[in-house]
């Protein structure tokens, strides 16, 4: 059995929630009314290859490392982890633990293939497709070259499977973002 623990805090701005969570080195998915950004996180700030991201227009964020995920919506932040260490003191609103029967490691293939000509530098990779254009993703590990393979990137997640209360059916009750990883696809894509 795996226990997904959570704690919350109300009334924090996104920069303060980032700083309080301690998720330096993580990735952030940031939603504003006019843009969707993927950024790296350090010291309570979010950064893309172009520089610091202004966070004042962000109304929803998911920030994650392999150990924890921060979900922030306007003024409420929830920190989720399997780690038994105490939560940062700022996260003082307890949230009921989720006792999972099992977990499933999952992944989602991101749109586009690696485009070395558009990659901005170390720690980042640019993905390109005719359907969505360019997408830049923080990725500290280079996507290797392999003959006959397309170079791609996946988002890793962990699903938490529980037994339903009413009928005993199992279902995925929660999904936590883990990180991005290089991925090679053989053949045509």
From TrEMBL:
Tree of life domain: Bacteria
Q: InterPro entries from the entry?
A: CRISPR-assoc_Csx19
Instruction: Please name the NCBIfam families in this protein's record.
Output: CRISPR-associated protein Csx19
Protein name listed in UniProt: CRISPR-associated protein (TIGR03984 family)
Query: Taxonomy-wise, where does this protein's organism fall, top ranks first?
Result: Bacteria, Bacillati, Actinomycetota, Actinomycetes, Streptosporangiales
């Amino acid at each position: 059995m795996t226990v997904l623990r959570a704690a919350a805090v109300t009334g924090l701005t996104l920069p303060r929630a980032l700083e309080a969570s301690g998720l330096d080195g993580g990735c952030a998915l940031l939603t504003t009314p006019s843009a969707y950004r993927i950024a790296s996180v350090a010291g309570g700030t979010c950064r893309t290859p172009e520089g610091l991201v202004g966070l004042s227009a962000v109304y929803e964020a998911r920030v994650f490392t392999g150990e924890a995920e921060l979900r922030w919506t306007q003024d409420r932040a929830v920190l989720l982890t399997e780690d038994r260490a105490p939560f940062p003191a700022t996260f003082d609103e307890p949230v009921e633990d989720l006792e999972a029967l099992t977990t499933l490691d999952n992944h989602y293939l991101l749109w586009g293939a690696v485009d070395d000509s558009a990659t901005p530098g170390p720690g980042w990779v640019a993905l390109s497709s005719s359907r969505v254009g360019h997408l830049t993703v923080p990725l500290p590990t280079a996507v290797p070259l392999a003959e006959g393979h397309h170079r791609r990137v996946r988002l890793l997640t962990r699903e938490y499977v529980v037994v339903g209360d009413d009928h005993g059916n199992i279902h995925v009750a929660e999904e936590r973002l883990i990180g991005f990883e290089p991925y090679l696809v053989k053949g045509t894509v």
